[in-house]
Write a structure and sequence with these properties.
The structure holds 2 protein chains of 2 kinds. Chain A is α+β, with helices and mostly antiparallel strands. Helix content of chain A is 35%, strand content 14%. Chain A folds into 2 domains: 4-114, Beta-grasp domain (Ubiquitin-like (UB roll), Roll), CATH 3.10.20.30; 121-249, Alpha-helical ferredoxin (Fumarate Reductase Iron-sulfur Protein, Chain B, domain 2). Chain A has 9 helices and 7 strands; from the N terminus they run ββαβββββαααααααα. In chain A, the strands form 2 sheets. Chain A has a 5-stranded mixed β-sheet. In chain A, strands 6-7 form a two-stranded antiparallel ribbon. In chain A, a hairpin with an 8-residue loop joins strand 1 and strand 2. Classes of the chains: A alpha+beta, B alpha+beta.
């Protein structure tokens, strides 16, 4: 199953948010194809440290595709060439001997670079804080089975709720729009009875915050859904628009 | 060690009076409360934003306290609770299969091999139902039946279906639920959130925890934060073993800071090794991936009956699907007929090791067993199986290039699908900071919740109980018990971070960072961490012996020396330096490794996740020694990482449950 490949790695290096960045090229030799992409970067970093140089900074944590911490724009695709997978779930068997692999950070006005490939995605938290919740206090809930919810609605809400908040949708979008991210959260609550009470307030607040933070508008290119590592569907954006229009009509 | 022992009376676990089923009710009825006006005057630091940390921070904010909440990731939503797959237990009995609070309590105590506190576990079972109500109200999209009611499945160590789940992403959905409540409090200004901050030390003033020193990981600067109480919710210490299912940033530094400040560390030897992980594949590997325990509902675990078949598998000459049904040894079903593939994790892990040690391993390293879905797929069809486990199958295929849902062979009309290969890996730590019934550590005003405390799982945790405990502590226990402590703090004014205790603490943290930067040796943090992992897995892993543990302690001492003299960190302290941050954590992992080894050496019995090879039955089952080890081992720091800690015992008292040998056979 295993064989080794050698390739050129072009990596974006940037000391800080205000510093100019540049591509550095590294020659990677004999990397086993059952190494994950991030393990390959670990190997690069070990080599850099051995030479007394600073390692490439990149965000990563769970390394099983669920925490949403890893990012990376690889060969022009957020999370690289695999579909429905995050960068940490990408394995080197996707690449070939002699390839040149280009690695960049998410590029979006709303996600400033912190260092090298690491960006600040705090704007996503702020959008959630604007309304991505059901307002009630701990202890006040009724029995969990008191309100039946159709399996269809629950499953659809689950699909929307699968968003990991990584920001690939924003990075993929030529407008730097966060519509897929916002629509996933709005949809989850719109589909469930628990979310209905504040649905109108929520959709308006979250969209207003998104605009305020410098994300672009949606022009329905669908790049976000095509690149989403969790296959969040474009229909969430339609639902978001419906929710928004009906909320505004009620104003 | 014996002469250092302090009398058992030094430990006060503050367990309330009365029968076990009434203790929590009694406690709540008589505890002291803080009125709303006074809550506004009290500040609480919560370190960590996993299930325990986020739920506690949100709930304390809702109650009116001012909360400062810290996480090392870029957002509270990244905490490692997010990766929990299988589910969360609760005693709802929605399936009408005989479940009850008592039965959940009983199963948890038994699953923990009779080494947990009865009173804590009963409370856990009691509030389990509130958690499900809470999460549904938050909009957590749990799996449902067609009639619209909640669905359940079974997990190891139980004969009822009491596990609630959201696909294979239950941890994610529960954490996002807690995160949404947290966001509401952040928006309302009751919680202030500090992302990319790492706690380096706890500030103690007049014997009480009054603040923390935290490093801003982006600027590299140390900052001071004061509060009336400090809560740590910073998870377990599984990454001591380097390779584990934990996330890369999971660490035990906050727990070690508490330990060095005088908080006892309880039962460090109880480490859970999860039976169903993808096997190790090479020396560049950075972490191990868990395949959810829920797979054992339909998957059957086996190795070949015939050693020759095993040898051919190891040589790559045949595949698992080439071996027909009658030549397969479903060893869990054979050894444990009553629970079969759903025995608890420690039992399943040891059984896999036993087969592999005997030469029946099925991959090229001989360290793997099969988890097979052929029977389930033939019975239910691939669509049903994919609906249940599709995302896990995909995850497995992405990593190994093998699709477990793919038809691989047909022998005599019987269809065989690609089996998964699995092997045990470090997954969860039952041990942790010692806490009393109020979840307060042995340092006043310092509380520990979630995986980072030791409280509820005894020597082994049952599947789907970690999420239950994290949320129980955060939503329903700590927000009550912390008031009993804070009620006499209402007249204590806010502390200035200019106090000499803050000065001293920050100076010590700075000195440690300076020291790490100035070692200027040759080795990277990861290379030393890998070596630590090898020592731990080899000598302090699934099967432990007196000699092995003594060897581990010698090797760990040498490794500490290597770390202190030959570490190299590139860059400088200004700004972000991930190598420096990793080095800070590694220093604590080494101390933690020693602590695990000391505890494992002291505990001359086998129980739950702690298996001493000298103590087993003729059938290879764990052999407890209730006469001599029916206690919580609390380790007290002796002022220096190089000095051995002192053992203090908290004896266990069981009133409701009769202590007996665990039996999953019949």
């Amino acid at each position: 199953m295993e064989n080794n490949i050698s390739f050129k790695l072009k990596v974006w290096r940037q000391q800080g948010p205000k510093e100019p960045g540049r591509f550095e090229t590294y020659e990677m030799q004999d990397i086993p194809t059952d190494t994950s992409f991030l393990e390959m970067l670990d190997i690069l970093n070990e080599q850099l440290i051995e030479k007394g140089e600073e390692p490439v900074h990149f965000d990563h944590d769970c390394r099983e595709g669920i925490c949403g911490m890893c990012s990376l724009y690889i060969n022009g695709h957020p999370h690289g060439p695999a579909t429905g997978a995050t960068t940490c779930q990408l394995y080197m068997r996707r690449f070939h001997d002699g390839d040149t692999i280009t690695v960049e950070p998410w590029r979006s006005a709303a996600f400033p670079v912190i260092k090298d490939l690491m960006v600040n995605r705090n704007a996503f938290d702020q959008i959630q804080q604007a309304g991505g919740y059901v307002s009630f206090n701990t202890g006040g809930a009724q029995d969990a089975n008191a309100i039946p919810i159709s399996k269809v609605a629950a499953d659809e809400a689950m699909d929307s709720a699968s968003c990991i908040g990584c920001g690939a949708c924003v990075a993929a979008c030529k407008n730097g729009s966060a519509m897929l991210f916002v629509s996933a959260k709005v949809s989850q609550f719109a589909l469930l009875p628990q979310g209905k009470a504040e649905a109108k307030k929520r959709v308006k607040a979250m969209l207003a915050k998104m605009d305020e933070l410098g994300f672009g508008n949606c022009t329905n290119t669908g790049a976000c859904a095509a690149e989403c590592p969790k296959n969040i569907k474009l229909s969430n954006i339609s639902r978001l628009n419906r929710e928004y229009i009906s909320a505004k009509c009620a104003d | 060690m014996e002469e250092n022992m302090i009398k058992a009376t030094a430990i006060d676990s503050k367990i309330p009076e009365g029968p076990v089923a009434e203790k929590w009710t009694n406690y709540k009825a008589h505890q002291k409360l803080v009125n709303p006006a006074n809550k506004r005057r009290l500040d609480i630091i919560v370190v960590g934003t996993g299930l325990a940390g986020a739920s506690a921070a949100a709930t304390l904010g809702e109650m009116g306290f001012n909360v400062l909440n810290f996480c090392i990731q870029d957002s509270p939503r990244r905490a490692h609770s997010i990766a929990a797959q299988g589910g969360i237990n609760a005693a709802k009995n929605y399936q009408n299969d005989g479940d009850s609070v008592y039965r959940l309590f009983y199963d948890t105590v038994k699953g923990g091999d009779y080494r947990a506190r009865e009173a804590n576990v009963y409370r856990l079972a009691e509030v389990s139902n509130n958690i499900i109500d809470q999460c549904v109200a938050q909009g957590v999209p749990f799996a449902r039946e067609y009639g619209g009611l909640l669905a359940n499945r079974s997990f190891g160590g139980a004969q009822v279906s009491r596990t609630f789940y959201a696909k294979g992403q239950t941890g994610q959905q529960l954490l996002l639920g807690a995160y949404s409540s947290l966001n509401r409090q952040i928006e309302m200004g009751k919680v202030k959130s500090y992302n990319r901050y790492e706690m380096h030390d706890i500030v103690v003033i007049d014997g009480r925890a009054r603040g923390i020193i935290a490093k801003n990981l982006v600027t590299g600067k140390l900052e001071r934060f004061a509060a009336h109480a400090v809560v740590i919710a910073t998870g377990g210490y599984g990454n001591t073993y380097f390779l584990s299912t934990n996330a890369m940033a999971c660490n035990c530094s906050a727990a070690m800071a508490a330990y060095r400040k005088g908080a006892f560390f309880a039962n460090p030897a109880y480490v859970q090794i999860h039976p169903t992980c993808i096997p190790v594949h090479g020396d560049k590997q950075s972490k191990l991936t868990l395949m959810s325990e829920s797979l054992r509902n339909d998957g059957r675990i086996w190795v070949p009956k015939d050693i020759e078949d095993a040898k051919k598998l190891q040589a790559g000459e045949i595949k698992g699907s080439d071996i027909p049904e009658e030549k397969r040894d479903y060893y869990l079903e054979r050894r444990y007929p009553a629970f079969g593939n759903l025995v608890p994790r420690d039992v399943a892990s040891r059984a896999a090791k036993e087969r592999c040690d005997k030469g029946y391993g099925v991959n090229n390293t001989g360290k793997a067993v099969f988890l097979d879905f052929s029977e389930a797929i033939n019975r239910l069809g691939i669509d049903v199986i994919r609906q249940r486990y599709g995302n896990l199958f995909d995850m497995y295929e992405e990593i190994t290039d093998v699709n477990p849902g793919e038809l691989a062979n047909e022998i005599d009309g019987e269809k065989y699908y690609n089996p998964m290969m699995i092997y045990p890996a470090i997954h969860y730590t039952m041990g942790g900071i010692w806490v009393d019934y109020e979840l307060q550590t042995s340092v006043k005003g310092l509380f520990a919740i979630g995986e980072c405390n030791f409280s509820d799982h005894g020597a082994n945790r049952l599947g789907a109980s970690a999420l239950m405990q994290g949320l129980a502590d955060g939503y329903f226990v700590l927000p009550y018990t912390i008031q009993n402590y804070l009620s006499d703090q209402i007249t204590v004014p806010r502390f200035s971070t200019d106090a000499p205790e803050f000065d001293a603490a920050e100076k010590a943290v700075q000195a440690n960072l300076d020291h790490l930067m100035n070692i200027k040796g040759k080795r990277s943090v990861d290379s030393i961490h890998k070596e630590l992992g090898h020592i731990m897995w080899e000598y302090v892993g699934m099967g432990r012996t007196k000699e092995g543990l003594e060897t581990a302690l010698t090797k760990l001492k040498a490794l500490r020396e290597e770390f202190e003299t030959n570490l190299f960190i590139p860059g400088d302290q200004e700004g972000m330096n991930v190598e420096l941050d990793k080095a800070f954590r590694l220093r604590d992992f080494i101390t933690m490794g020693e602590l695990i080894a000391y505890d494992a050496l002291n505990r001359n019995e086998s129980c739950g996740g702690h298996f001493r090879e000298e103590h087993q039955t003729e059938e290879g089952e764990a052999k407890r020694d209730d006469e001599n080890y029916f206690y919580v081992a609390c380790w007290k720091y002796n002022g220096d990482d190089e000095k051995a800690p002192t053992l203090i015992k908290e004896p266990l008292h069981y009133e409701a449950i009769k202590v007996q040998t665990r039996n999953y056979k019949n």
